[in-house]
Amino acid sequence: MAKKVKVTDACQGCTLCTMTCPSVFAMNADNLAEAIVAEIPEGEEAAVEEAAANCPAGAIEIE
Ligand code: SF4
Asked: For residue 27, which of 16, 36, 43, 61 sits 20 to 30 Å off, Cα-Cα?
């Protein structure tokens, strides 16, 4: 089963995750990142894990 991903309120809007994994993360109207998919697409797990590891706010949760 695919893992789920979400961006929490801790996001600081640095845009890093949207550059690392644009198929999963996008900036919203408030200039904060959000996950544009509820579940991580096949083949994107490594990029999402990289984005989560590099997020300076620790705002990306994978479960
Ligand atoms: S890397 Fe983290 S702080 Fe930066 S935009 Fe993404 S969720 Fe927000």
From this structure: 43
pTM attached to this predicted model = 0.95
Could you identify the atom of ligand 1 that is nearest to the CA of residue 57?
3
CB 20 within 8 A of CB 54: yes
Domain limits at 40?
A: 5-62
CATH number of the domain that residue 44 is part of:
3.30.70.20
Mutate to test the pocket of ligand 1, among 6, 17, 25, 50 (most ligand atoms within 8 A of CB): 17
